Known about the structure:
Helices cover 41% and strands 12% of the residues.
Amino acid sequence: xxxxxxxxxxxxxxxxxxxxxxxxxxxxxxxxxxxxxxxxxxxxxxxxxxxxxxxxxxxxxxxxxxxxxxxxxxxxxxxxxxxxxxxxxxxxxxxxxxxxxxxxxxxxxxxxxxxxxxxxxxxxxxxxxxxxxxxxxxxxxxxxxxxxxxxxxxxxxxxxxxxxxxxxxxxxxxxxxxxxxxxxxxxxxxxxxxxxxxxxxxxxxxxxxxxxxxxxxxxxxxxxxxxxxxxxxxxxxxxxxxxxxxxxxxxxxxxxxxxxxxxxxxxxxxxxxxxxxxxxxxxxxxxxxxxxxxxxxxxxxxxxxxxxxxxxxxxxxxxxxxxxxxxxxxxxxxxxxxxxxxxxxxxxxxxxxxxxxxxxxxxxxxxxxxxxxxxxxxxxxxxxxxxxxxxxxxxxxxxxxxxxxxxxxxxxxxxxxxxxxxxxxx
Length: 426
């Protein structure tokens, strides 16, 4: 599977004529067979007069290209029905630097998606827009604000503890309004950057979308390197709040291996991303403030309980939110962890769930696959202990404190188990 990604008028886009799928970066394609993505981001950065670091902008080009490949190349056509071999050519500004990091980036992408990547970098990448009068925000850090419960609690807590944060959101159907409301109410009102990659010409493709989060992280790096502090040579922080259980996200059963468990904030991926960011000369520390907290623990320790209580039920967690007409299903793994966190927090959960009463002994409730899978995991950890059950999940040399990671996973499962018991699930 091969894909070439480049800005408008780049000669490589002519390869579509020779049968190679192409993606136009930062433009709007009208040519049949050519996907386009990123124009909205270019326009947003230009409108706001921001000046991100050139290599941060290149990283956005890479992230958009990877996301395009991930969504447009179906796993069903691979030999095993899942693992793809993807050859991806991306036009960047600093072709020499990115070529020197090819092996590191390929390894990072393989961990994120479990696909086999072969990257090539082309000259002639899209530069960031150049404003006559630049605007450099005075905030000293950036926090991703997805519209989810973890990022909401994280942003509230950071603001309450005196961090001057710029909030960055990736616009998603059903979340935009809540993202805006959250940013307006946190810390007396946050500078808020909402972006959308505005893909056009996309056929119905791969739904697993394990690389989508890479674009969100790229937005965060754009914002962090646009801050006045970074432009003056100071270190800035990109906060990516995610509870420790979901961060590790071990496969609950043998049937849920590999890419069936997202790895966006897994410490191995985060460490690899940090190494790449540092090697690019970007003074940005990527940090998950909830790495060793369960979701319920994160809610309980948030510094502004009143604001969190007011906004929490408006957040989004469901893995099938859009497919359920923007309603939480209440039974997928993210919903189960969400509901358990409210129970642990001890505050009322006003979220509307399609499948509210999980104690019902049928395939839509207590016998639903995700509910059963997490019960199997709970029993396995009880019998084997978390470190043995997690197996290779924590085997990387980049995991420096495996006992702490195993402990947060075990506490996370106990949190869900307590909730399920209260629901009458046996």
